[in-house]
Design brief:
It contains 3 helices and 5 strands. By secondary structure, the chain is of the alpha+beta class.
Amino acid sequence: MKPVDDYFLNQKEPYQSIMLYVRSVILNTLPEVEERYSYKIPFYNCHKKPLIYLNVLKGTNYVDVAFVQGILLEKQFPILKNDNNRKQVRSIQLKSLEDLNHANFVELLLEASNMLSKTKKAWFV
C-alpha cells in the first residue's frame, strides 16, 4: 500500500470520507495530476509543480483543501479563505461533504491547473 493510501485510511471520520471524496474528484477532474506523499500529507502535482494538498490541521475540526497558488484564485472563487495568515496558499475548509459544491470545486480545479501551467514556479512568495 502507498503511503498516501495509509494516510487516508488512518484518518478519523468524517475526515476520512471527506478526503477520499475530494481525492476522487481531483483524480477524475485532472487526469494528468500526480498524487504524491510529501511532508507527511497528500499533495497533487500538475505540470511538475504542487497544485493542491489535503490536511487536517491540529486544533481544527475540518479538512483543509489547500491550493498552493490560491492567492491568485481567491477573487474569482470566494470560497477560498486565508486560514492561518498564509502568504499565498488559500483553502477550502470542509467540516462535512455537504460543505463542498461539486461543480464549483471542479471549476476551481480546472482553473488552478490552467493557471499553474502558465507559471514558472509554484511557490512565488
